[in-house]
Design goal:
single chain, about 325 residues, alpha/beta, Nucleotidyltransferase, domain 5, Trna Endonuclease, Chain: A, domain 1, five-stranded mixed sheet, 10 strands, elongated
């Protein structure tokens, strides 16, 4: 295809492709490449079908011989804010805008138009039809893989170096164990399969009674109840409430004896991370300008449900 376009008078043909639309974590990458006419590379093709070693070799050859190339990304926050398709288009436009040479035409892999400011054409299966698109595919894939290898050093508990953020069995296991990291795409985690044993079993009478007391207390303090017992694959938030300034995620804890640690002390850092992960999932589907806050309500009820006047202690900003 590139040869035909060159013969038709297009000198600067730019190929554009992306890598990383499907993963649960990390950015989506895009690359734009302008190759010299009649440039050939041994093994050039769809980056996903090549070995890591071959991709690395081709990356070096392409970057050494290209007339111009650029790599750009849209990060996990942008993906959550605008959806993956729009974020991919953003990364593609960023890559094209970074080129040192203005292209005569831009060839984009796929059937969706990213609205690039130059003359463009969408090519389904483009990495098998255009050398420029295939080269862009290599640059985007290798750049993203190297980025995720760097993220593996920052977040070793997720083994990003092995799955690059894709939804593998290992990745799901790590997510259930640790909850999501700062670079996970919250909107991609809504469909995360629930872990065995985390099906949100009904609360006992005492727990339900304690949460009812917490609701009464919060409503008396002019909080509005937004949700009760919100569940995610990572855990459950007892209450979600709001006032004029905050959306508050509340953990309700009861105790019947004074010789035990305060209930708030039972909320380990691992438990906090899962509450925060669940809160992020709720926030992803409930647009709000309110600032999030994590509170604990302790209820001291020595006689259980028979306690006439249980002591209620409200700890604001219990963790973050």
């Amino acid at each position: 295809m590139d040869r035909e376009l060159h013969a038709s008078g297009y000198d600067m043909i730019c190929g554009v492709d992306e890598a990383g639309r499907g993963p649960l974590a990390g950015p989506v990458f895009a690359a734009a490449v302008i190759l010299p006419p009649e440039t050939g590379f041994n093994g050039l093709g769809d980056s996903k079908k090549l070995s890591e070693k071959t991709r690395g070799r081709l990356f070096d050859e392409i970057t050494a011989s290209a007339l111009s190339f650029a790599v750009a990304l849209a990060d996990h926050r942008e993906i959550d804010e605008m959806n993956i398709l729009r974020a991919t288009f953003l990364a593609m436009n960023r890559a094209v805008d970074k080129l040192a040479i203005e292209p005569d035409i831009v060839l984009v892999d796929g059937d969706r138009d990213p609205k690039i400011r130059y003359r463009s054409r969408c090519i389904v299966g483009g990495d098998g039809k255009s050398a420029s698109i295939a080269a862009a595919s290599i640059l985007a894939k290798v750049s993203r893989d190297r980025h995720m290898a760097g993220m593996a050093e920052l977040y070793p508990q997720y083994s990003f170096e092995k799955h690059k953020g894709y939804g593998t069995k290992l990745h799901y296991e790590k997510l259930r164990e640790h909850g999501p990291s700062e670079i996970h795409r919250v909107t991609f985690l809504k469909k995360l399969p629930a872990a065995a044993g985390n099906t949100g079993a009904a609360k006992g009478n005492l727990g339900a009674w304690g949460e009812a007391l917490a609701c009464e207390y919060l409503e008396a303090k002019n909080y509005t109840i937004a949700a009760k017992g919100f569940r995610s694959p990572f855990g459950e938030i007892d209450l979600i409430v709001s006032d004029k300034s905050f959306i508050v995620f509340v953990e309700v804890k009861l105790r019947k004896k004074t010789d035990f640690a305060f209930p708030r002390e039972f909320i380990s850092r691992a438990k906090q991370k899962k509450i925060i992960a669940t809160a992020n999932l709720w926030l992803a589907s409930h647009r709000t300008r309110l600032q999030p806050r994590f509170d604990v309500i302790e209820i001291y009820a020595p006689d259980g449900e028979k306690t006439a006047s249980p002591e209620i202690n409200h700890i604001e900003n219990a963790f973050s």
